[in-house]
Amino acid sequence: MAVYTELDRHELTEITEDYGLVRLLSSSGIPSGSVNTNYLLETARGRHLLRVDEVKGELEVKRELDLLLFLRKHGFPCPQPLADRKGRYYRETGGKCFSVYRYYDGHVVPSERLTTGQLESIGRALADLHTICKSYKKGIDNRFSFERVAGVYGEPASGRTRARCTGGSKSKRDARTGAACRSAASFDIRASIPNAFRHRHSFPDAQALAS
User: Fold this and answer.
1) 112: CB partners within 8 A, 6+ apart
2) What are 74-88's pLDDT values in tens digits?
3) What confidence tens digit (pLDDT) does each residue in 177-208 have?
4) What residues are paired with 47 via a beta bridge?
5) What is 9-102's CATH superfamily?
6) CA 64, CA 54: separation in Å to the nearest integer?
7) Alpha-carbon distance 146 to 189, whole Å?
8) Which residues contact 117 (CB under 8 A, 6 or more apart)?
């Protein structure tokens, strides 16, 4: 991955001051990640992470932050978004939303080195997440639903498109659409289970870290 949105020293200094972090000591773009741009900010008030959302629109960013704040309020260990001096949890730069979080030191544990105890801890954390979210009454649209992914590829979310996704079409366009839609279809299970929070991807920057 890469730093997709370049922010210069002046912009990062301004953001640091606006979020009450006093002074920017140094900054660096974080090359690893999934789809977003991340900067590590060394400030007079410690390390913080600045994230620029490269994909999500403003409404999706607002919903995600609202959920994070809800989870923090209920004691769940998750990223802690900071508010700027005007009480805003996100801002815009170049038409993209960005937010600032407290930085937590840690390292990624390779899957082959995960212990039974660590897996049990992750399982308990996920159970707590689902239990807490039972009282979260606001809905969040699934970005990976069949309809949305089909729309990205210019396909109507019709029965014919669904048939092509699961069939053996030989055209390049159908193959491309099919690969994307099959991924979406794996999450499109609303008809068979109750609507609830579910996990959609597994990226190193979105998973459990062990200190």
Assistant:
1) none
2) 999 999 999 999 999
3) 555 555 555 555 444 444 555 555 554 444 44
4) 42
5) Phosphorylase Kinase; domain 1 (3.30.200.20)
6) 14
7) 10
8) none
Cα 30–Cα 50–Cα 22 angle in degrees, nearest 5: 120
Q: Do residues 4 and 54 touch, judged by C-beta distance below 8 A?
A: yes
From the list 21, 11, 22, the residue with the least C-alpha distance to 91 is: 11
In order of 19, 63, 151, 183, 201, the CA distances from 143 in angstroms are 29, 12, 11, 12, 11
Tokens matching residue 142: 């699934």
Tokens (6 digits) for 61? 């960013």
Half-sphere exposure of 177 (CA within 13 A, CB side): 27
- What angle do helix axes 159-166 and 172-185 make, rounded to 10 degrees? 100
Domain extent listing, the chain = 9-102, 146-185
